[in-house]
Structures are given as C-alpha cells and as structure tokens.
Specification:
Layout lengths: L1 E5 L4 H11 L6 E6 L2 H11 L4 E5 L5 H9 L3 E4 L9
Parallel strand pairs: 1-2, 1-4, 2-3
Length: 85
C-alpha cells in the first residue's frame, strides 16, 4: 500500500511515518509537508528507500487532490486549523 502523510514532517506525522515504515507490507510512505527540508531530513533519518519527501501546501486544494490521487491511504496530520478531515 502507498500512504501519504499530510503534515508528515511534524511531530505527529513523523511518528506515523516511523510506525508505517516498520510494517513490511507498506510499499511507500510519502512525507508531504510545506517544509520540504524537514520532510527530506525525516526521510533520510528513516534510512528507508520507501520514505519519500514531497512539498505540499495543504491550503492549496489542487495540490492536495493531486498528491492524494496516487495514494491508497491518506493520513491527515496537518494542523487542525486547515480542517482537512
């Protein structure tokens, strides 16, 4: 399965990323965050080729739709004020 973690470089998102990467049946975890450098740092720290960093501004509905099209599962860890539930 392919997971996209919205707000994936934050504290909660990073925990979700690490937990998912511990599962052998997870094919890819996309760390989608407005802070690309932080997402890339997390992906590198995970040392797993299945972890991929992507820049994403959750305030841009078009960007969110585009990244979700390729996901099997999305996990929303973005700040609550963005109301993506």
């Amino acid at each position: 399965m392919r997971f996209v973690i919205l707000g994936g470089a934050g504290a909660v998102g990073a925990a979700v990323v690490r937990d998912l990467l511990a599962c052998a049946d997870v094919q890819q975890v996309v760390i989608a965050d407005i802070d690309l450098q932080r997402a890339e740092k997390l992906a590198a720290a995970c040392a797993a080729p299945r972890a991929v960093a992507r820049a994403l501004d959750v305030r841009n509905a078009g960007e969110v739709r585009a990244i979700l099209r390729s996901a099997d599962v999305a996990v929303n860890c973005a700040f609550y004020r963005y109301n993506l539930a």
